[in-house]
Each structure stands twice: as C-alpha cells, then as structure tokens.
Specification:
The complex is a heterodimer of chains A (257) and B (368).
Chain A (H helix, E strand, L loop, with lengths): L4 E3 L2 E3 L3 E4 L9 H8 L3 E5 L21 E5 L6 H13 L5 E4 L12 H13 L3 E6 L3 H10 L5 E2 L13 H10 L5 E3 L5 H9 L4 E4 L1 H4 L4 H20 L23
Parallel strand pairs in A: 3-4, 3-10, 4-5, 6-7, 7-8, 9-10
Antiparallel strand pairs in A: 1-2
Chain B lengths: L2 H6 L6 H7 L2 H8 L6 H8 L7 H16 L2 E11 L24 H13 L4 E6 L8 H11 L5 E5 L5 H10 L3 E3 L7 H7 L8 H5 L1 H8 L3 E4 L8 H18 L4 E5 L18 H14 L4 E4 L5 H7 L6 E3 L28 H10 L3 E3 L7
Parallel strand pairs in B: 1-2, 1-8, 1-9, 2-3, 3-4, 4-5, 5-6, 6-7, 7-8
Helix pairs in contact in B: 3-4, 4-12, 4-13, 5-13, 6-7, 7-8, 8-11
Classes of the chains: A alpha/beta (257), B alpha/beta (368).
Chain lengths: 257, 368
C-alpha cells in the first residue's frame, strides 16, 4: 500500500524535506537531493538571484523537486508578504514557508505576525506552510487562517537538540487535520525517526546535513531514519513503558481454558 | 537605559588591574561555559587567555559553522564624497588635509554602481564624509535611490543623524547601518576629534540605538583599533554589541575590526593591534556572542583574511576602492580614506573562499 503525503494538492512519497542554507558549496545540493530522495527543498528568497544566470541557487534544484521558498529575514507581516509575492513573481511557485523572526539571537518565530501573514497569503492562493512555535491553540488558528500544513520547531534552529518540544508537538499531531512537519533543531537521524514515530507527517532538516562533512551521506541517513520512523508509526508500535509488565496482570488467574 | 549608562558603569574600572588578575582557571572556566557573561569576555580578552588560543579557535569555528554555515557574505564600499568638516586626526578626509575634494554627481554614482555591480557585488556600503552643506540628506536620498537599481542591499556608513533622518533614508531604500565609535575611551575620543560635529561623544555613542529605532535591519559597530588600549576597546565593542542584541533583538548586530597598522593620517598609533591579538579578540567575541556577525575588510592583508575564514569571520569586503570615484575612474588622483591591503578582485576573493571549503554569498537580502 502506498503511503502518500499530500500538501496543497501535491503528492510526496519521501517525507524528508531539506534546505539549501549553510552548504560549503551549492554544487553539493543536487547530489544531496538525489541520494536522499528528498522531494521538497526550502530556499531563502533573500539568497535567490534571478539576475545571476550562472550561479542562481535555483539552477541546482532539479525540476522534479518541489521548491519551498521561505521568507527568511522577514520581521513583520508586511515584509513576509512582500517576500512571498517576490518569490511567486520570480517563478518559485505557490508554496511558501513563512518565517517571521524578530529575534536574531534565538531565531524564535513570532507567532502573531506569522498568523497575520498566513491570513493574507492563504487568501492570495499561496500554499502556506508556517514555521511556528509549537502551541496547540496557535496551530488551530493557523489552520483556520488557511495554512496547508504547520511546521512546529523541535528545538531552536541549528541547535541539533532534537525534539525538546515533544509534548507540545504531540498535542498538535493528535489534533491537527492538516499535515504536521517538524522543522528545526533535528540534529541526528535518530531524532528524525523519533519525530516520525510520534506521528509527524514529515520532517525538515537543513543544518545537520549542510554543515556535515558529507552532506549526501548524512541526507541519506536522515532519509532512512524517516522511513524507519514512519513504518514504526504506521505499524502502531506500542508506547514505551516505565516498568516491566507481566503479559496478563489482571486476568492471568483465569487460566487457559 | 541607553548604552551610555552601561558604559559609564566602567568609568572607574581598572582594566589593567582586572586583566592582570585573570587566572588560567578563570579562562578555563569561561571556556567550559555555554552562556558567557561580560566577565568571561574580559577573561578571554586577557593576556592569560592567549595560550588558549587554539582551543578558543576550535570552539569558535564550530559555533560559527553551526550558526552561520560554511558561508562568507560579500560586500563592497562605495565612496560618494570626501568633503568633511571633522578633523579626526587618524583619517585621510580630515578637513585640515589639503587635497582636491570630490563629490560625485548622481550620474557619476550610477557609473560607479554599474562597474561595481558588474563585478558581481550585490551588497553595497555607501560612504561619505560629514558635510551637511555638500552632502545633505536630499543628496543621500537620491544616491540611495539610484543604488537600489543595482544592489539588493544598501548599507550606510555616513555621519550620525537623528532617527527621523534615518527613517527618510530607509524609505529611500537603505537597510543597514555601519557606525564606528572610533574609540570608547572618552578622553582619547576628545583628543582625536578636536573639532566638528563628531566631537560629541554621546551623540555618536547612541547612534546605533537611533538606527535600530529607525528600523535598520542590520547594524555594524566597532572602534578603530590603535587609538585606545586595545583590550578595553575590544571589551567595549563586545559589551556594545551585546547591549544592542538584547535591546533590539530584531536587528542583526555585527562588529568590524578596523586597525591602524602604521602612521596613518600622520599620527603614530600608540596601541598597535597585533595579528595574534586580533584573532584572539575575534574568538573571544564569537564565544561571547555566537550569532554576532564579524566583518573583515580589505584593510587586512590577503594571507590573513584567508585564515580568518576559519576563525569566526562571517563577512568580507571584496574588490574595494576607498577613494571617491575609484571604480569607474571618474576622478583620478583622489586620496583613499585608508590604504588597502587585500587588492584582489571580487572573482579572486570568491575563488579563494571556495578553495577554503566555504560558499561566497553575494545576495542575502532583497531590499524593497
């Protein structure tokens, strides 16, 4: 049975989403994509240079991979909306990852501005994927505002600390009727597997891949971990238990008959 | 509370005594911490920390890659006028210096912009001396407007002004601000700025804050090393950067490390900053502020810049000309504000960055 993730009418079989930032060279990106099989990649519009015919980052992304331009650098709704429109005009498609960040030290998303941006862009027909602080109420508000998926952070961007927000993310996963993509902070394949095991629909990993000494192999490792975690989730693996449990503690006395 | 109050707390602080009292244990404690405070910064700037420079470098290199990636952003300066009413004793534009001054016309600025943008540069730093008659706000607005046609980000390194004037320039298309305190030590500041608007220490010190309030998205600060005691100046630079980061979290804060290398502008610097100490300072700042941008200009020699890529640097100027009209040669024979050391062109710098295993980023913003 095929296990397909649909976002904005587009189907994905690979649930590892990747990024284009922090690489030593853009030329590593095609191999990284090929080896991992990643079908969606985010790119900061601030780094896209459509006037540069030779070295435009978009030239390194195969047409088969869905482009997820992001609004990195935006500090307000107006800036994010402007960047999203530039992305669409520049031929980057209708997908947009909203990043509105007013905190340059911790790079925490501004949920209020993110919501206002989502409202505007969803009305303009964008497929909106907001990067957000994991909060169940906020997740519902984004959904009501027209988000196509939500992207709660696992831990601060680039921190490699994994799912520090796991309880909050699990709430969102249980209640959300739109896909939940865990974004930011995933530093190891085991952490990506964990996100998938608890039911995330996909994960987005950039720093851990881009800053490693072998991005294609690391991307492959993440891709495999995502598959493992997803299989475990679909197989409805049991929760881990704090104590050992006898197999029939309540009814064992009734015997076999 | 402004940074003036913050710096005033150190008015009677005995830096020499403090730096001399730092022990190896202090340095090691600082190196084992995740969140460093100002006393850790002092420890890491001290001579006691110098033997730990390799350990500092290893940690700083990791942090820089984690937070910035294997990436160096590039920019270039564009001088539009060397008229100046100040008499900064260390500067080639000093009003006492007799030379034929030049202010570019808007058409000449456009010629400069064309040459510079053809070299691949996307982020430009516009510079001028302080002369409100020769280079009024209206002239700066027009200059910025013409630059928006050629560049994706425009930074300003111009004379300090009020918040509302900065807003006018932001509306014209500028997005970033560089302003150097030159020297944080108040009495030296008075000595090296004998006349002109720049004599006002407080007004200059609070310029980055006015810029942040006006809405600049990135602010670059730093003293000119050589004027004051290098260690205490480096400490104030870090303290100032941290203050801005905390007070204005939506602003990207960075520091530059301009240093006088010899008798520049006719004076002999009492406090030369050595290569090794420069590196130690960069590392100390990186450990103190993992997200701090560190900007290295073409004042520094090529061989050193090549090494600094791995030592916390995040931004390089490239292919710079520091004389008015220097790119399109509209104005032969003008004197540069300071002498360049790294004279490689933009392609050569980008190639070197690539060879070091880093990506040269030309475009990192889309100005409106």
């Amino acid at each position: 049975m095929s296990d397909i993730l649909t976002i904005g009418g587009k189907e994905f079989t690979n649930r590892l989403f990747t990024g284009t930032g922090k690489f030593a060279s853009k030329s590593i990106i095609p191999e990284m994509l090929e080896k991992s099989g990643s079908e969606m990649i985010t790119v900061a519009l601030r780094r896209v240079d459509n006037n540069d015919k030779d070295d435009n980052i978009l030239n390194y992304i195969p047409k088969t991979v869905t482009l997820l331009p992001n609004t990195s650098g935006a500090r307000t709704r107006d800036e994010a909306v402007r960047i999203a429109r530039l992305a669409r005009e520049g031929g980057c498609g209708d997908f947009i990852k909203i990043e509105v960040i007013k905190d340059m030290k911790y790079l925490m998303p501004d949920n209020y501005e993110t919501l206002k941006t989502t409202e505007v862009l969803a009305k303009e027909g964008f497929i909106v994927l907001p990067y957000m602080m994991p909060d169940i109420t906020f997740s519902r508000q984004l959904q009501d505002a027209g988000a196509a998926a939500v992207m709660p952070l696992g831990s601060p961007i680039g921190s490699n600390r994994g799912l520090e927000m796991i309880e909050m993310i699990e709430m969102i996963i249980r209640e959300s009727s739109i896909p939940v993509i865990v974004d930011a902070g995933i530093g190891r394949p085991s952490q990506a597997a964990c996100a998938m095991e608890i039911g995330a629909d996909a994960v987005l990993v950039n720093t851990a891949i881009a800053t490693s000494s072998n991005p294609p192999d690391v991307a492959l490792a993440f891709s495999m971990a995502v598959i493992a975690g997803r299989k475990a989730f679909l197989a409805k693996m049991e929760d881990k238990k704090t104590f050992a449990e006898a197999s029939s503690p309540l009814t064992g006395f009734l015997g076999e008959s | 509370m402004s940074f003036l109050e913050k710096i005033t707390e150190f008015e009677f602080f005995d830096f020499k005594e403090y730096f001399d009292s730092v022990s190896s244990q202090d340095v090691e404690n600082s190196l084992n911490k995740n969140n460093l405070d100002k006393f850790d910064l002092l420890s890491l700037l001290s001579n006691t920390a110098t033997p730990y420079i390799e350990q500092m470098a290893q940690q700083a290199n990791k942090l820089t890659i984690q937070y910035f990636g294997r990436v160096i952003s590039l920019y270039a300066p564009l001088y539009i006028s060397d008229y100046c009413n100040n008499s900064c004793t260390y500067c080639g534009f000093n009003r006492q210096n007799q030379f034929k001054r030049k202010k570019l016309s808007i058409a000449e600025i456009e010629s400069e912009a064309k040459v510079l943008s053809n070299s691949g540069i996307k982020h430009v730093l516009l510079l001028t001396g302080e002369d409100l008659v020769k280079t009024p706000i209206s002239y700066l607005v027009e200059s910025i407007q013409v630059l928006t046609k050629y560049f994706s980000s425009i930074a300003l390194e111009i004379f300090p002004m009020d918040t509302n004037d900065y807003k006018t320039l932001i509306n014209a298309g500028a997005d970033s601000l560089t302003v150097y305190q030159e020297v944080y030590n108040k009495s030296i500041y008075k000595d090296v700025h004998p006349q002109g608007m720049k004599r006002d220490y407080k007004y200059r010190l609070l310029t980055p804050e006015r810029g942040a309030i006006a809405g600049f998205r990135a602010i670059n600060i730093g003293p000119l090393y050589g004027l004051g005691n290098v260690q205490s100046e480096a400490f104030f630079a870090g303290l100032h950067a941290k203050y801005l980061e905390q007070k204005h979290p939506d602003v990207e804060v960075s520091v530059s490390v301009p240093r006088m290398t010899k008798a520049e502008g006719g004076i002999s610097p009492k406090n030369l900053l050595s290569d090794k100490t420069l590196v130690q300072f960069m590392l100390a700042w990186r450990l103190y502020m993992p997200r701090l941008g560190i900007n290295i200009s073409t004042r520094e020699p090529a061989w050193l810049r090549d090494k600094l890529i791995h030592l916390g640097a995040t931004k390089f100027s490239a292919g710079s000309k520091t004389d008015v009209g220097g790119y399109s040669k509209v104005n032969k024979g003008n004197i540069p504000q300071f002498e360049l050391s790294d004279t490689r062109n933009v392609d050569e710098i980008a190639q070197m960055i690539k060879e070091k295993g880093y990506q040269a980023v030309f475009k990192d913003w889309d100005a409106a």
